[in-house]
Specification:
This protein is mainly α. The protein has helices at residues 7-18, 27-38, 44-55, 71-80. The chain contains four helices and no strands. Pfam families: HTH_33.
Length: 81
Amino acid sequence: MKRKITEEVHDGLSERLNDQEQGFLSYVQAVQWVKETYGIEYKYNTLRDYMIDFFGTKIKQPRKSHIKKSQEAVTDFLKLT
């Protein structure tokens, strides 16, 4: 099966994903970045599946925080670790 992603886009994605300061917050952001940078518009699922297959990407989401959590308790906890 031939992939639609060009080698130039693959290299750009690889470089951006391996940069610790500039990752992607979502696959939508990755699609927009490719469109702005290379002028190529890929479908969301195409780029998402490609990034998962070739780079093993996962978009991380923080867990919800309890609304009654004390900020003081958090700072005390972080001081202990």
